[in-house]
Amino acid sequence: MLEPRSPSRYACCFQAAATGTGGLALPVLGLATWGATLVAACRTTAEDQPSPLLLLGSIAIPIEFGFTALAGQGLTHYYINWLPILSLLSGIFCHRHLQIEETGSLSTRPRKYLGPALLAAALLLPARRVLPNAVHVLTAGPRDTSRTAAEVTAYNGTYLLMWGAEVSYNYIAGLPAPTKYAYQYPLYTCDYVSGDMLATFRRDIETWQPVIVDTSSTNDRVPPIDPNLRGQRPQLEEECALSPAMRDLLEWLQRSYTYAGSLPSTGWAVYRPIEWTPTDGQGTSCGHCIELSGGMNQ
Fold it and tell me: What are the angstrom distances between the C-alpha of 176 and each of 91, 105, 272, 291?
């Protein structure tokens, strides 16, 4: 039975394991403890039996796995309930292998370095995902939003659809979005999006004919409008980002819109309707459009 003897050290190990949530440390250590608990529970000797808390965590793991599987969708927030259980089991794992008593197979010298090694792994594993983005920000620098907004308005559209999640440019450029789906991540989730949602989205585009700025060149989660670029992103298939209805919508956009250029500051592609004429911005009001431009100033 595992009996914690140093609460401060136990808490330290728990926190070190928890910092690995962005990498592999937390699930690896948690599942390793879960497996060891199952082995110990099958033994008949009383001293080898795990504590009730450890048994509780080990029973909760398959239950949470089952609930997540029953949901039928791979949304990230469905895994939040795993974190407390995996953190508990990972903390117990660290505590067991950092005890100073002479009962384990490791000598005092290896144990001296095991704690720092686990802490370094917990920090470095998630860093491997964060550092590439940080390097991109440091090399590319921050976006000049005012300059980008000026480049967008140069296309003389009355309505602006930012293809992706950059809706702040609607406000900065003073151009309303033509649809309630100004933020389109829900439309890229094939287990969530419905045909009615995409039909409404298409109808809004047909009615208000916005200028479309495709932000996929700086966001891998956004499917490019250009089919050649879209074919270079196999992760869209793996992440189930393209439902059949979304594929139909993209094919319709390819027939109805034409490439008009790109924004120099970001490289974002700009598309206009094939049958497009510039407007003076005084057209009929779009009653259900999302006004991101003038509402605050009225």
Answer: 50, 67, 16, 5
Q: DSSP assignment of the chain, as one string?
A: ------HHHHHHHHHHHHGGGGSSHHHHHHHHHHHHHHHHHT---GGGPPPHHHHHHHHHHHHHHHHHHHH----GGGGTTHHHHHHHHHHHHHHHHT--STTSSS-HHHHHHHHHHHHHHHHHHHHHHHHHHHHHHHHH----HHHHHHHHHTT--SSEEEESS-THHHHHHT--BSSS-SS-GGGG-TTT--HHHHHHHHHHHHHH--EEEE-GGG-TTSPPSSHHHHTT-THHHHTT---HHHHHHHHHHHHHEEEEEE-TTT--EEEEESS-----S-S---TTSB--SSGGG-
pTM score: 0.56
Tens digit of pLDDT for each residue in 4-17? 333 334 334 434 44
Rounded CA separation 196/235 (Å): 25
Residues 93, 33: Cα–Cα separation, whole Å: 6
Residue 62: phi and psi, rounded to 5, are -65, -30
Longest dimension (CA), the chain: 84
pLDDT per residue as tens digits for the range 245-254:
899 999 999 9
Q: Which residues contact 284 (CB under 8 A, 6 or more apart)?
A: none
The answer to whether 276 and 283 are in contact (CB under 8 A) is no
